User: What shape does this take?
Amino acid sequence: MAEPSTLHAALAAAARRGPDTPVTFHTGRERLGLADLLDQSHAMAGALAAAGVRRGDRVGLLCQNEADFFRVLIGLGVLGACACPLPLPTMARDGYQVRVRGVIAAAQIETVVVSERLTRLRGVLGPALDGTTAVSTGDLRDHDAPPDSGVTGEDDLIVQFTSGSTAVPKGVRLSHANVLACLTAIRDGIELSGADRAGNWLPLFHDMGLFGSLTALYYPIPLTVWQPSVFVKDPAHWLRLMSEIGVTACPLPNFAYDAMARAVPADEVTDYDLSNWRVAFNGAEPIAVDTLEGFLDHFAPAGFRQEAMLPVYGLAEATLPVTFSELTAPPRVDWVDRPQLAETGKAVPVDRGSPNSRGVVSVGRPVTNMAVRIADPETGALQGERVVGEVEIRGASVTAGYLRGEQPFTEDGWLRTGDLGYTAGGELHITGRRKEMIIVRGDNYYPEDVEAAVRTDPGVHRRRCVAYLDEGAERMVLVVESTEEDSPALRERLRALVATATGLEDVRVVVAPPQAIPRTSSGKLQRLASRARFG
Amino acid sequence: MSEDVITVITTVTEIVAGEFGLPVAAVDADVDLSSLEGADSVKVLRAVAKIERTYDIELEDDQVFGLKTVRDAATLVVATLAEKEPSGGGR
Assistant: This one.
């Protein structure tokens, strides 16, 4: 039989191998077998077709970490329609409605499928869904499955909105073929076997949460999904839950490893048994050496093995995985000279104890059907080992492009990731970002959104402001021109506006007199020149 | 009833101030939580967890989505307590 070319065909094959493979959701305490989940997804496809959804339509998907997320996603795939997962807020925040509206406009979404558990979200959404038809998952059950619509691997399955600012979100188009290539690469990259069990609390609207979970269904192995709040509220409790049910593979970002080490006191570590944990993905955020080593030291008495920690690199434009570090080896840290790295872009090895050393965690080698190269971001010239450049990728899981706007490809068809890094011993090391974006606790923040938050404040002279990343790409700086005196009160007010609109708290605010911000000839405020002037 | 809300506001204010590392005086009942110094979603959820433990209640995520201020949180706590123990009986 031919290899399945669509997600639903691949999952049907998985369900024939393991129809009763349990899929468990903490929300609503749902537990069902894979074959039942697929049947219900086909029923939902029939109901969505009856509701007017057609092949090629882009449909909003607003669900928590619950079975309905998969039913809607798979159901849309059956019809050849495309799911646009919408984010959920953590709390009421003005920026949330703007973000949802931005995605709906960018993807020209006419229908949004909303979980029946989220009726109370309406108050937070406000008018964000105006102009669309909102359908509750509660009204999409027990329908006959639709006839085969001839969907191919080339049909778009998902548009992932993790790139771009709130104001101009970039929708990453992912076909069935892209997604299957991603799932295969993860499966092979961690040598998944029938003895594994997967767990995930990352949001399913986030690529690492979604494709990590789908890999479990694709094999299939048992999967347990929690709400993000279960982890964030009490990381120690979650760690106990996941170890008790014997989870062997689980994706987490850097901050989560920090949170677990802080949540479990040293004298309680031996109460945990982490010896079954085989693959602890560490990705989606820059990986800090102290966090990594702190976790390994702290949880060694619980039986956590160093080689279980798996630093990885991925991005939405690659569906998810780009490189994985070596599966059976402890994480590797490359110690290089910090000033030379910053000034010359050369990764010169030094002793760890050297006063100028910087540790860069290796994220390993390309996954199956993925190629990586390092190029000079200005000239495109390929760089040799230990020379920093932009990471460029090409492979089966790489997107065909964004829905609209500037496309991220080089002339010879490689995708420019916007991340900076170098190779050493054939392994990729990420050193920073070329994109004007920072990641804090898994969320992306863009200068455009920071500027938009304050532009119309009366303290800002003629809407003149500019936001950019500081030299180390670790903190956002906001410079405003103002006719007011610089004062802590003014800076604090602007900072609070940014925090309310974007959720980004740690912003350095600089108040400058009118005409202080450098411009280009077109009058556009210039980020790089501002960084040179204001630091 | 309104006295209840005021007592709960005092407790919730202390919890939020504690989780955010701010003096209690800096946390007004009606200030937008996301504008507080040091605010992020992780701190908000930790404060929610502490509120849950303090009152022995469970708040659903989609209820927490709607919280903007300490007063919102206190109102939700009072409503959840009222649902749980309509006659004020034991547990």
In short: Residues 34-50 of chain A form the longest helix (17 residues). Chain A has a mean pLDDT of 91.
